């Protein structure tokens, strides 16, 4: 497939994300302090047909990966708070719908941002991660901070990380020390966040959509101004790997 093509399901998902205000354009300060001309708000997959579309896309991606890599499997889908929470629950339901005999017993789990000190108490909700093979599901990966926090929760709960899937990989280089100090990017070449996470963990890191896909999708929608802004941003934060 050329860089100007997308499978029809990706084009439809991008079109749905634009028409429902999930993918928007403007000036957005990210968690990494970078200022981006586009933003993906996965919290807005908040209507039945939207959460169905994104959970089907995650489930198809995970099921295809498992079919293509025999022996790769997981017991629990872990969705970090907050936006990972509806994603893990809806995606395991879609996995069971795809193949009940393979995925019917897969569990889901998520953390609380504040530890609960009454009732059943604790940090975690859902399936226990102890001794389980765990796959992380999250919305967007930029600098990888959220994913690293999720990995440390899984380790602290005695789980074994076997995979990561996000809806959108923004394909950005890792933040520099100068960015972390709030002084902006020093322009030095650095590897991609996703590449770094793959090297650190040794597990597959999947994305339903990438920035490259979003650019092709916006071009198909004839939104040339937005395409130019996204291309300039991609160039500015392009990873060296
Ligand atoms: O790769 P990163 O640079 O970490 O950025 C991306 C993450 O940051 C945001 O979540 P946030 O931590 O704000 O939590 P939320 O789900 O409560 O919005 C966003 O939803 C991603 O999960
Ligand atoms: O990096 C982020 O903070 C971020 C980017 C994005 O597109 N969407 C989001 O929810 N967070």
From TrEMBL:
Gene3D superfamilies, per database record: 3.40.50.2020
GO-annotated biological processes: 'de novo' pyrimidine nucleobase biosynthetic process; 'de novo' UMP biosynthetic process; pyrimidine ribonucleoside biosynthetic process
Residues in Phosphoribosyltransferase domain copies: 59-179
Cited Pfam families: Pribosyltran
Keyword Methyltransferase recorded: no
CDD domains membership: PRTases_typeI
Recorded metabolic or biological pathway in which this protein acts: Pyrimidine metabolism; UMP biosynthesis via de novo pathway; UMP from orotate: step 1/2
GO molecular-function term, one example from the UniProt record: orotate phosphoribosyltransferase activity
A GO CC term assigned to this protein in UniProt: cytoplasm
Compositional bias of kind Basic and acidic residues: 172-188
Keyword field: Glycosyltransferase, Pyrimidine biosynthesis, Transferase
Segments for region (Disordered): 172-199
InterPro entries documented for this protein: OPRT, Or_phspho_trans_dom, PRTase-like, PRTase_dom
Catalytic activity of the protein: orotidine 5'-phosphate + diphosphate = orotate + 5-phospho-alpha-D-ribose 1-diphosphate
EC number: 2.4.2.10
Oligomeric and partner information: Homodimer.
Family: Belongs to the purine/pyrimidine phosphoribosyltransferase family. PyrE subfamily.
Cited function: Catalyzes the transfer of a ribosyl phosphate group from 5-phosphoribose 1-diphosphate to orotate, leading to the formation of orotidine monophosphate (OMP).
Protein name in the entry: Orotate phosphoribosyltransferase
Lineage of the species this protein comes from: Eukaryota, Fungi, Dikarya, Ascomycota, Pezizomycotina
